[in-house]
Structures are given as C-alpha cells and as structure tokens.
Amino acid sequence: MSSAKIIDGKAFAAKLRGDIASEVAKLKAEHGVVPGLAVVLVGEDPASEVYVRNKGKQTLECGMNSYEHKLPAATSQEDLLAIITQLNNDPKVHGILCQLPVPKHIDENAVLAAIDPAKDVDGFHIINAGALATGGDGIAPCTPYGCLMLLKDTLGDLSGKRAVVVGRSNIVGKPMAQLLLKENCTVTIAHSRTRDLAEEVRRADIVIAAVGRPNMITGDWIAKGATVIDVGINRIEGENGKMKLVGDVDFASAVEVAGAITPVPGGVGPMTIACLLNNTLIAACRANGVTPPKLGFGG
Ligand SMILES: Nc1nc2c(c(=O)[nH]1)N[C@@H](CN(C=O)c1ccc(C(=O)N[C@@H](CCC(=O)O)C(=O)O)cc1)CN2
C-alpha cells in the first residue's frame, strides 16, 4: 500500500498566485506601479506556445501587464537582440524572458546575456547565476525556486539533509544544487557519467529528478521515506496510442517507497509560472525602491 504524501504543486501555485495578486494590488495602490512582464517567443513550437499563452493569461490574472512578442522562426539573432534592447529600455517592462528553446540558428547564450540582469525574471543571466552561487541578491530561476518552496513546505528545515540532483543543466540542475546548498543540505549533482547512479540516489533524503528521460528513476532506487521532486516533463505514447505526460521518475513504483512525491502533471510544472510572476513582482519592487515581499515560504 502506498503511503507517500502527494505534493500538490497545482494547489500550491494557485495559492502563490493569489498572494502575488494581493501584493500587486498593494504595489499599485501605494506606489502607483503596475508590474509588466514581456515574453518573447521565436517560432511555433507547440509546447512553447502553450507555455507562453499560460504565462500571458496568468500575468493578467495577477493584475500585471503582459507584453507578448511572437516572432517567426526565421527571425535573425540581430532582430531578436534589437527587440530585447528595446524591452531593456522600456520603463513599463520590469521582467523580460525569451521562451526556450530558441531556433537552432540563434545562440541561446547571446540572447540570455542581452537581457538586463535586473529584468531577467528567468534568472538565467550569468550575473544572476553568479549571485546565486555566491550568496548575492539576484533573481533565482523559476523551476528550482518552485521546487525549493515545495520542499520547504513539505519538510520544513532542510539543514543537514542529503540531496541528490540528477541532471546538471544551467536552468535546473546547477541552480537547484546552489539553492539546496544555501539551505545547508549536503548536495550531490549526478549526471549521465555518474557511476552507480542508483546507489547515489538511494543515499538521498531528497531526490530532484531533472534529466529529461521518461520514468528513468524507479522505486528501487529510492530510500524509504525520501522526498522526491520530479522536474521531468516528457511526452510519451500511452497504451491507448494517445500521448501522455510523464516525469523522470516512475511514479507507480516510487510512490510505494517515497515519503512524499510530486506528480507529473500537477507537481513542479505549475510552480514555474507562479515563480516567474513572483520574480516579476520582485523586479518591479526593486526597480521602484520598494522592499519586495518574500512569498512562497509560509509565515
Ligand atoms: N524561458 C524559459 N523557457 C523555458 C522554461 C523557463 O522556465 N523559462 N521552462 C520550460 C517550460 N515552461 C515554462 O516556460 C513550463 C513548463 C511546464 C509548465 C507546466 O505547467 N506544466 C504542467 C503540464 C502542462 C502540459 O500539459 O504541458 C505540469 O507539469 O503540470 C509550465 C511552464 C522550458 N522552457
């Protein structure tokens, strides 16, 4: 019989968006500032189109201004950078992001580097990555920050816990490890070259799965009672021939041994956009000399 707590990221994100909306209303009433988020999408990737649509919708629902820039797949890097410069200089825009992935002819790093770090609400700019690594006051990437909120809501103090982060991407694995380190966890970053990956995972109190391989981490890799955060979003064909969404963790076997686990969908995914809105609120506050609220951590 399964005993794991199912961590409801969808409900947590909805509550966080409600708190953000209240703070946005306060910012508007007390300082006359309406946070503005600009989202740039290059091309017609169907999943990206859904994410961008949801970002726009949830931005408006929180009382912020939304600016969408949908560009054809053939847009040159030069033209994309020119739009980013324009957004950097627009005082109504407090947050900017370019939806990833970008088409192959565009250098993703050049795009991320072009965004003003103070408006980089994805937290991907090297200045923000550096601030996170050195304990500075930057902007944290949305998905890892959302994972941290769910972890702290589930476990409270994380000090001394053994955490394994499976995956070493710049946008999830590495910043996740930095955030856990800041919480005084003992952190291992595992990846495709890690020897005896299953054994590394088995040692952990906290497992963060961010590899992008469907159902890779099975229940027999997980320590009894561990907390499992599944960042994977993989579309695979189900038994009925229809496409379905699964994580990097084999939920059916993992739920039998874990103490708590996020589902896919409905776990980490919804936290990404909620944290993006939180970062936009923070950026708007900072741009106007207002101390930002610390939302998502109870209290
Ligand atoms: N510039 C960025 N690009 C991308 C990011 C990012 O944070 N910044 N992350 C992902 C995509 N993403 C947001 O952009 C995102 C992914 C998933 C979800 C989500 O709510 N997932 C749902 C399922 C939705 C579905 O059916 O597909 C869930 O897991 O429950 C939101 C946002 C890559 N690009």
UniProtKB/TrEMBL annotation:
Pathway of action: One-carbon metabolism; tetrahydrofolate interconversion
Gene3D superfamilies: Leucine Dehydrogenase, chain A, domain 1, NAD(P)-binding Rossmann-like Domain
Positions annotated to bind NADP(+): G167, R168, S169, I233
Residue ranges annotated for the Tetrahydrofolate dehydrogenase/cyclohydrolase catalytic domain, each copy included: 7-122
Enzyme Commission number(s): 1.5.1.5, 3.5.4.9
Family per similarity comment: Belongs to the tetrahydrofolate dehydrogenase/cyclohydrolase family.
Name of this protein: Bifunctional protein FolD
